[in-house]
Amino acid sequence: MADSSFDIVSKVEWQEVDNAINQTAREIATRFDFKNVGGEIKRSGEKIEMKANGEERVKAILDVLKDKFIKRGLSLKAMEAGEPLLSGKEYKISADIKEGITQDDAKKVAKIIRDEGPKGVKAQVQGDELRVSSKSRDDLQTIQALLKGKDLEFAIQFVNYR
């Protein structure tokens, strides 16, 4: 019998990111505490730009965006927001959306699987994803539960379960 396998990836559903940004923009436009603060949010490529005329207001926009991310099922680990920066008369926050697993992170996950997982489970790095294979499907489910329990600094999903 052939080995069963799955891939560990770190992907972002861009349509959901756009939906979260659009909901945040609508909330900024309608909320009373955002009146006359010049609050704005937009996405360009893999960056989200937020700006307002006060440091506290731009942080509040970021908080609203984080709430929308959570409600839409997106991981906050995929978003890396910077500190508010003063630019002219307004404050700006730039947030990057991270996708893919770096080589170092993939090696860390493979080490966790080797050290703490069941014997006979193989993990190999393939580009920006990690393929985990084993003869037993139960072992693969054990690996998934193990990794979900770990507090990794990046978001992971399990795909291509065969």
From TrEMBL:
Q: Which Pfam families match?
A: YajQ
The answer to whether the entry has keyword Disulfide bond is: no
Which of UniProt's keywords are assigned here? Nucleotide-binding
UniProt-listed InterPro entries: UPF0234-like_C, UPF0234_N, YajQ-like_sf, YajQ/Smlt4090-like
| PANTHER family the record matches | UPF0234 PROTEIN YAJQ
Job description of the protein: Nucleotide-binding protein.
Family the entry assigns: Belongs to the YajQ family.
Q: What is this protein called?
A: Nucleotide-binding protein GCM10009760_01550
Lineage of the species this protein comes from: Bacteria, Bacillati, Actinomycetota, Actinomycetes, Kitasatosporales
